[in-house]
Specification:
Elements (H helix, E strand, L loop, with lengths): L3 E3 L2 E3 L2 E4 L22 E4 L4 E5 L7 E6 L4 E7 L5 E8 L2 E8 L12 E5 L3 E4 L7 E5 L4 E7 L3 E7 L4 E7 H7 E2 L11 E7 L3 E5 L5 E6 L4 E9 L2 E6 L4 E9 L3 H5 L8 H10 L1 H30 L2 E4 L4 E8 L8 E6 L2 E6 L7 E4 L5 E4 L1
Parallel strand pairs: 4-15
Antiparallel strand pairs: 1-2, 3-17, 4-7, 5-6, 7-8, 8-9, 10-13, 10-16, 11-12, 13-14, 14-15, 17-20, 18-19, 20-21, 21-22, 21-25, 22-24, 23-24, 25-26, 27-28
Helix pairs in contact: 3-4
Length: 365
């Protein structure tokens, strides 16, 4: 695998291709995060809606079938998979958690955060036959999905949020992006590869057909953390990737001969005559052997790209994994033409992939 030196750091560009794994896309970025302050009223698109007593959607209370299900959401779960709020059934108002997916036309749609440059009409359905509301110039919206003629959006009024439909023609002609925090990629599972595996294909007319992955790739899940930073998860065990940082420089001290140890003939004599001295020497020798083994393992990891040493700064970085979200690393996503690069927030190192001694693909620094 080819490496290049940039700013005295060995970097491998990691590229993320648009190959979302089916059924693994999360939906939490679709809805406003301040539902506790401003509620959202919406009609479910699903015919059957299950209601739960917990945000993890494990304790089912009831199922509402047949007929209109209007829900007033006042909270959203941590992972965004559930909304909490109230609904009316048989003239009685009830509360519970419902899957957020029941309100989405297309769960795989990459949500768009934007404002409109002119007033627009909101409709109740994608056939645009029933006017629901109007939004003013420079109103904020979140696009949730689209058909051939309409776009499903979250819109905002003075009192609450709502979900409705815009004309696709108006959406295309009157949309303007704003300065809000916008998610470049939807949460989901993507393929990761290095820049050395990217080939730019050119078609007959001389135009580029875009990048093609010519090498192996890793599958990781991205989870948005805000301000264009993401958490990276291993989809096989839901563990978060992190960067472990430690100082280097204590190694020389560990190898330095201790003050109590004699040299030359005195060392040999004490080894023969003093059990306590012999015991201390053996403990020190055992420690040196352990350090040598650790160094050999470290050198293997450095060669494999699992560990990177910045000797100028006196620090060492390693790829690690954790079950705790608060310990997860933050990774900055940037668009590079038709693909993206991602790098740890703290280090500026970019990820690639390598092969360990077992022959498996592993993250590489």
């Amino acid at each position: 695998m080819k490496e290049r030196k940039i700013n005295r750091r060995m970097l491998l560009i990691l590229c993320i291709f648009f190959c979302l794994s089916g059924g693994k896309t999360r939906v939490y970025a679709a809805f406003p995060s301040d539902l506790a302050k401003k509620q959202m009223t919406a009609d479910a698109l699903a015919q059957d809606v299950s209601v739960y007593s917990d945000p993890d959607l494990t304790q089912k209370n009831m199922e509402v079938s047949g007929g209109r299900f209007t829900f007033t959401a006042r909270d959203i779960s941590h992972d965004g998979r559930a909304l909490f709020g109230s609904y009316t059934i048989g003239g009685e108002e009830r509360e519970g958690w419902v899957p957020s997916s029941v309100f989405l036309w297309d769960e795989s749609f990459t949500h768009v955060y934007a404002t409109v440059r002119d007033s627009m009409t909101i409709y109740s359905s994608p056939d645009l036959s029933d006017k629901k509301a109007s939004i003013k110039k420079y109103s904020g919206i979140i696009a949730l999905g689209k058909t051939d003629s309409a776009v499903q959006v979250v819109y905002e009024t003075k009192k609450e949020y709502g979900i409705g439909w815009l004309s696709l023609e108006e959406y295309d002609n009157k949309l303007v992006y704003d300065g809000r925090d916008k998610q470049l990629l939807a949460d989901g599972t993507y393929s990761f590869t290095t820049s050395d595996n990217i080939a730019d294909t050119t078609v007959a007319d001389g135009s580029s057909a875009g990048p093609v992955n010519n090498g192996s790739s890793l599958q990781y899940r991205l989870e948005y953390a805000g301000k264009q930073s993401y958490r990276i998860l291993d989809p096989s065990n839901d563990r978060y990737m992190k960067i472990k940082k430690e100082n280097i420089g204590e190694e020389a001290e560990d190898k330095k001969k201790p003050d109590w140890m004699d040299g030359g003939i005195m060392h040999v004599i004490k080894i023969l005559l003093s059990p306590s001295y012999r015991k201390k020497v053996k403990a020190w020798d055992d420690k040196q052997e352990a350090l040598a083994r650790e160094k050999a393992v470290l050198e293997e990891k450095i060669a494999a790209g699992e560990v990177y040493e910045d000797k100028d700064q006196g620090v060492r970085y390693a790829v690690g994994w954790t079950d705790e979200e608060e310990e997860a690393g933050r990774f900055i996503l940037k668009r590079q033409g038709q693909y993206f690069t991602i790098s740890p927030e703290e280090t500026g190192l970019l990820y690639g992939s390598g092969v360990n001694k077992e022959g498996d693909l592993v993250p590489r620094l």
